[in-house]
């Protein structure tokens, strides 16, 4: 992918703090107009990476570009096109949302007041706070504060939004509201966000990047990571002796593996397949050909990102 198509690229980006190597030869590629979930356990190097991208610290080795510009040499130009939301945004409690946005907007815009007011109204409307624009922030919920933080980060029409734990510590409704705002913003910006809430990543992200111990261990689309973990597989719950059916299924070239387990007098069977089309057409029919078996449940196993994440991280530990 060329730098024109990529918003963020790094080449062996590394950062040491004394003898501690916080980030090791990181190679990232973040496509334009995507939502990218940035994952890793505590101490994995996520915060260090964000600091390097924002120019808040300098790399020990390697390099990186944002919009094709060097993150060290052209940092001021990069910052004009980037919006950033810290994990716990702080506000002057006595100020209203509109006053806070006006204060922020004047760092970026010079010109007629009416145009600045239009941009503030537009941004508050985008994050769903237009009806609360003139309320003091002290009365805002956690979700409303996060959305105001996103509005601040978005006020300068950024081409890239970097969000640090945007839905952390929010209740389910607050998380849903923040995710909906992020989904709206994908039309305007590339979104790069760190989080520990893997369900949120699976719901809104196009791509996932996973770090562990300062190293990149996975990078790709959500679908790629999910399909690469255990393969395409189906699950059945059966009543009866399934040993003969297990051998029967293993004889087909499109079946990779058949695993069975027993619980409460029932048999749980997991069938890993190589060909989805053949499995859809033939799998259930082949199992039902054994008249001694009763199929109680049949479903395609859907991996979730948390299972994949834990498998990757624990495998690296």
Descriptive tags:
5-stranded antiparallel beta sheet, alpha/beta, 317 residues
Any overview of this molecule?
With 317 residues, the protein is α/β, with parallel strands linked by helices. The chain contains eleven helices and 15 strands. The protein has helices spanning 46-54, 75-79, 97-105, 113-126, 142-154, 172-185, 198-204, 222-230, 243-250, 276-288, 305-316; strands at 6-17, 20-26, 29-31, 35-39, 61-66, 69-70, 82-85, 160-164, 190-194, 207-212, 215-221, 232-239, 255-263, 266-273, 294-300. The strands form three sheets. Strands 7-8-9-4-10-11 form a six-stranded mixed sheet, with helices on both faces. Helix 3 packs across helix 4. The longest helix has 14 residues, at 113-126. It is elongated, with a radius of gyration of 25 Å. The protein starts with 5 loop residues before the first strand and ends with a helix.
The level of helicity is: 25-40%
Strand order of the largest sheet: 7-8-9-4-10-11
Content of β-strand: 25-35%
| Main pleated-sheet profile | 6 strands, mixed
Kindly report the average pLDDT value: 90
Structural class from helices and strands?
alpha/beta
Poorly predicted runs are none
Give the N-terminus to C-terminus distance in angstroms. 31 Å
Number of helical segments? 11
Order of helices and strands: EEEEHEEHEHHHEHEHEEHEHEEHEH
Instruction: Specify the overall morphology.
Output: elongated
User: How many β strands by DSSP?
Assistant: 15
**What gyration radius follows from the Cα positions, in whole Å?**
25 Å
């Amino acid at each position: 992918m060329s730098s024109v198509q990529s918003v963020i690229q790094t080449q062996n980006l590394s950062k040491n703090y004394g003898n501690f190597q916080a980030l090791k030869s990181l190679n990232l590629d973040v496509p334009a107009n995507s939502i990218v979930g940035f994952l890793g356990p505590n101490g994995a190097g996520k915060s260090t990476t964000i600091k390097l991208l924002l120019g808040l610290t300098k790399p020990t080795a390697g390099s990186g570009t944002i919009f094709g510009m060097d993150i060290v040499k052209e940092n001021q130009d990069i910052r004009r096109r980037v919006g950033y939301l810290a994990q716990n945004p702080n506000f002057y409690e006595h100020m209203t949302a509109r006053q806070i946005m006006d204060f922020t907007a004047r760092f970026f815009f010079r010109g007629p007041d009416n145009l600045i007011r239009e941009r503030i109204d537009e941004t508050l409307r985008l994050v769903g706070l237009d009806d609360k624009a003139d309320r003091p922030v002290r009365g805002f919920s956690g979700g409303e504060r996060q959305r105001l933080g996103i509005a601040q980060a978005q006020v300068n029409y950024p081409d890239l939004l970097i969000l640090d734990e945007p839905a952390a510590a929010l209740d389910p409704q607050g998380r849903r509201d923040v995710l909906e705002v992020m989904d709206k913003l994908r039309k305007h910006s590339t979104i790069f966000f760190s989080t520990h809430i893997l369900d949120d990543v699976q719901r809104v992200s196009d791509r996932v990047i996973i770090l562990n111990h300062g190293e990149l261990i996975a990078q790709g689309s959500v679908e790629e990571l999910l399909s690469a973990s255990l393969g395409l597989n189906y699950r059945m719950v059966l009543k009866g002796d399934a040993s003969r059916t297990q051998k029967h299924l293993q004889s087909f070239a499109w079946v990779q593996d058949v695993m069975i387990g027993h619980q409460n007098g029932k048999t749980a069977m997991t069938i890993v397949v190589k060909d989805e089309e053949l499995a859809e057409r033939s799998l259930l029919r082949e199992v039902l050909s054994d008249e001694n078996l009763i199929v109680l449940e049949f479903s395609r196993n859907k991996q979730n990102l948390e299972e994949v994440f834990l498998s990757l991280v624990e495998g690296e530990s």
